[in-house]
Design brief:
The structure is a homodimer. Chain A starts with 24 loop residues before the first strand and ends in a 40-residue tail after the last strand. In chain A, strand 3 and strand 4 form a beta hairpin. In chain A, the strands form three sheets. Chain A has a seven-stranded antiparallel sheet with strand order 2-11-7-13-5-4-3. In chain A, strands 6-12-8-10 form a four-stranded antiparallel sheet, with no helix packed on it. Chain A has a two-stranded antiparallel sheet with strand order 1-9. The first copy, chain A, is of the alpha+beta class. The radius of gyration of chain A is 18 Å and the shape is globular. Chain A has a single domain, classed as q2cbj1_9rhob like domain (Jelly Rolls), CATH 2.60.120.620. At the A-B interface, strand 6 and helix 8 of A face strand 6 and helix 8 of B. Chains A, B: GO terms for molecular function: 2-oxoglutarate-dependent dioxygenase activity; iron ion binding. Chains A, B: InterPro entries: EctD, Phytyl_CoA_dOase-like.
Chain lengths: 316, 316
């Protein structure tokens, strides 16, 4: 696709004030959800595009070949079992153990996952959804072990990316590529369909170095339980389940969370956040300092846009 | 049904030694599962009886009328919201708050739930499964709130009842009557089908007053993760989901647990443990002192057998 990326804009005005002193505030989303018109050559069906626009997420199964999937799973296991080559800042452990929970800058630590991040089945879809060239705002490998996998409370990613990373507008999408089978019982990603249409400005100032604790258990930038209750009761609740290889695209403002997991079955996924080149991050809107690069890619001087790659993912 | 309850037996010999010094040990179950022959007048179908025998549990839906269910739900809400009349020993709160998690001796605190415990659709089925007159070993109302409901790790109830309550043999069954809809996402009871056929003798001596902490998070009397992994991988994993009013019968030695729950939907159930009159508890097999009466009903001098009651459950 060809895009004329407009000048960076919006950064002068804070379109979504949050981390408020005086309480939570709900407002209507100001941005489009689906930034392209659907057309015959689009990388997803019209029904899929409509679902993403209306619900704020899209689950795609059977996207990769068995050989591709095997390679991705093996490579992810290797990264987790031998994280010795990975910088300490790029690793997050479980709250109550040293088990690796997250490897950040996944594309930098693995040529294979770098290739996956550029794959047209992932980045090409992100380009279409965002109607722009895209770059990786964040990339990581998540690993939620069996038996002791902890819950992650309801939140909108955009609220944090806006407040703490300076992402101006809602023009980003996450792609989660499941590397294990994910059932309703082993802590799947749960989403509130349609919640992406409302911005929940959260109460509470951002503490210094908030990300050092928020990555383990988020306390700031989360909606009130009453708000989640009301939205879930109006809009329902869905779980993005599927076999390994399933891709879950979810819009940056869709409310999501996951339960803990006492089953023996671990949950693992590769997670890529695509942001539009027209939506580059600037100064945080509601934090004193920017978060580190592994959380919010700044680029030098700006990040490189991705040129989506077609064809089979192979070892090499 | 008419039963000739045999003399109390077995108590001289410990048929299921547990809380071992030198490690965990698996052995075959020594007792029948289904203690009655199925017959035309049985309170469950032949397929249900077979399922219970083979899997160790049975889920029955649409048992109560809407009016009965409404009455049960309202009464449970009242007990929870106003627990002031309930003895402190009979109340358990969430680990990190004062919210009521459990009301013990439910039958003593509510005439309506006492009636439920005697209902032929519950106690009558228990009689059939155990092939004997039954009494209430334990009865309680469980309440797992939305958002913060904690997980409960895998365990066999019998292991604890044997070790800490002196229950001689596997001739007891629990009935959980759901008082809220229970989906796979809000922390349902999960079971390992067929696990009731194996006794897992657990490692570790019983600490004094173990029940004071084990009711919030059980540490002693739980199988090793590797054992649960192996059994779940061989036998699978099931979740007892259903609308409010569903009854889940599960055999005393069936491995079960539940995940935490960040969804807004609470989970609540009435829980009755029926033990066979021929299986009265004696001295604990692996603890210094008996647990209190609210956990293990001793009776005066023995508990009264239940005479199952037919007909509609009504207010009054």
């Amino acid at each position: 696709m060809n895009f004329t990326t407009p000048e960076r804009q919006f950064t002068q005005v804070d379109a979504y004030p949050t981390r408020l002193h005086d309480g939570e505030r709900l407002s209507e989303r100001l941005d489009p959800v689906l930034w392209s018109e659907w057309h015959e050559d689009a990388p997803i069906t019209r029904a899929e595009a409509d679902h993403y626009r209306d619900k704020g997420y899209l689950v795609r199964k059977d996207v990769f070949s068995p050989e591709e999937l095997k390679l991705l799973v093996e490579t992810s296991a290797h990264l987790r079992e031998d994280p010795s080559g990975i910088a300490r800042d790029d690793l997050i452990s479980e709250p109550e153990s040293d088990a690796v929970r997250t490897v950040f800058r996944l594309d930098a630590h693995s040529p294979l996952f770098d290739r996956l991040a550029r794959d047209s089945r992932v980045a090409g879809v992100a380009e279409f959804l965002l109607g722009d060239q895209v770059y990786l705002h964040q990339s990581r490998l998540n690993y939620k072990p069996g038996f002791t996998g902890k819950e992650f409370y309801w939140h909108s990613d955009f609220e944090t990316w806006h407040a703490e990373d300076g992402m101006p507008r809602m023009r980003a999408v996450s792609a989660s590529i499941l590397l294990t089978d994910n059932s309703a019982l082993n802590g799947p990603l749960m989403l509130v369909p349609g919640s992406h249409k409302t911005f929940i400005a959260c109460q509470g100032e951002t503490p210094e170095n908030n990300h050092e604790t928020s990555l383990k258990a988020q306390k700031i930038g989360v909606p009130q339980p009453e708000t989640i209750s009301r939205m879930a009761s109006e809009l329902g609740l869905d779980a993005a389940t599927g076999p390994a290889g399933t891709i879950v695209f979810f819009e940056c403002n869709t409310l999501h969370g996951s339960n803990g997991n006492i089953t023996p079955d671990p949950r693992s996924n590769a997670f890529f956040v695509y942001n539009a080149m027209s939506n580059l991050v600037g100064e945080p809107y509601a934090a004193d300092r920017k978060r580190p690069d592994f959380l919010a890619n700044q680029g030098r001087p700006v990040p490189d846009p991705i040129a989506p790659v077609t064809g089979e993912i192979r070892k090499g």
